[in-house]
Fold this protein.
Amino acid sequence: MKKFITLLLISSIVVAIPFIEGCKKGAEDPFISLLSRDARLKGTWKLISRSNTTITTTVTNTTNDVNSDNYTSTSVETDRETYSGNTLTMRNNYTVSESSFSFAQWDGDSWDVTVIENEDESGTDYNYSYTVEITIEKDNTYTATFTKTHISTTTYNLDAQGNLEIETQQLDPPLDTDTWTAEGNWFWIDSNDDKINIMTSGGPLNGKLLKLSNKELIIEEVSTSTNTETDYSDVNYSTHNDDDPAEFEEGIETSITTITVSVNDTETWEKQK
């Protein structure tokens, strides 16, 4: 009898192991859960924290086939959202630009190479009182509710001496509160596999689930894309001829622009009772 009970327990454990291991899909999922991912996802979730950064880097290099003049510009634009303690900060079009222009200049006897470098920095932070909740239904539909109140604005600019000026304007009283809803369908992108990539049609919950427990949900979206364009145009440039500094020649100017967009978004949601 004891042997039979022991064998029964061993068999039960062996049968349960695939089920237990199958519960842990995301990197931070609970090791053991008696509920399926669909069952754990169902319910109302409130956004607790968010860090979303989109960086767009644009590099343009311009040369020509007449002389050695070279123009390079680099612009890094950062759009960022951070959310904590019901406060949302949106940094829009925060740009740091650098440019350099190398060209030859006639000093009366010969050509001297001159390099001009410029730098600029500007942007705006918009601060809001903000809340968002989403209800996930079993029938693959969702409803999300948002509230948002603009409470302050912070601007960043370089002055004439190149010093960064920061100015914050408090809105007293704050602007009217906006409340709106979104609804639609949700689905697993990888429904036949691990069910860790989720998407809502027009909703706030999109990306890879790092953690899905009964009480907490952590989701992230990381991506990088690059696009390169080349433009050609006719130019009339100095030949940099020491014998005749006023001699010009028609040629082709080539501009190569590379745009790289990187997105890194991590959100933490809490299950509401």
